Amino acid sequence: MACRERVQPLSSDGPSRTSASLPARVIRVEDDTVVIEGRWLPMDGDHASPAPVQAVRATCLKGPHTCQEELTVLQPEGSAREAPQPRTLDYQIKQWTKWKIIAVHQGAGGSSELRISTVGLAAEKVSIDRAPRGSEVHWRLE
After folding, report:
1. Do the beta carbons of residue 69 and residue 35 sit within 8 Å?
2. pLDDT for 115-127, tens place per residue?
3. Would you say 115 and 127 are in contact if contact means Cβ atoms under 8 Å apart?
């Protein structure tokens, strides 16, 4: 299968680190590897307060059935906070077809599910908090 890509080639250094240079939305599909890059934004109505901008780069490998997601919360322009530190989450792929990939991460505070459409070149993420009320937030890749 030929490589399909949307927007532009990936940089080799992961997600951009400042809000001045947000990563472009990219989904690259090859036979045994899928890479997404961009930023997660909450879908309409899923977040009560403004969510921080999260730069993301995720790589899914068909052989070991794993995805690794690198997240960086970007600080607003002129922020006095220290430089953002990336956080890495490991996912187990539950389904890999020629149409989609579904991968799950189980953490101490909750779980996340990546859903990547390899045909429509789109991605979303669902985060489920284990807190008493079990909030659920749906994100889309931009």
Report:
1. no
2. 999 999 999 999 9
3. no
| Distance, CA of 124 to CA of 113 (rounded, Å) | 8
Retrieve residue 23's tokens.
Answer: 């990563």
* Contact between 43 and 141 (Cβ < 8 Å): no
Backbone phi and psi for residue 57, each to the nearest 5 degrees, phi listed first: -140, 120
Answering whether pTM is above 0.70, one says yes
- Residue 134 backbone class (left: φ over 0; alpha: ψ -120 to 50; beta: rest): left
Residue 119 vs residues 29, 63, 100, 127, 140: alpha-carbon distances, Å: 9, 20, 7, 23, 16
Buried b (16+ CB within 10 A) or exposed e, 54-93: bbbbbbbeeeeeebebbbbebbeeeeeeeebeeeebebeb
93-108 pLDDT, tens digit each: 999 999 999 999 998 8
For residue 45, with 0-12 CB atoms within 10 Å meaning exposed, 13-18 middle and 19 or more buried, which class applies? exposed
- Residue 37 CA to residue 25 CA, distance in Å, equals 6
Tokens representing residue 17 in the block: 């680190």
Domains of the chain: 4-141 (2.40.160)
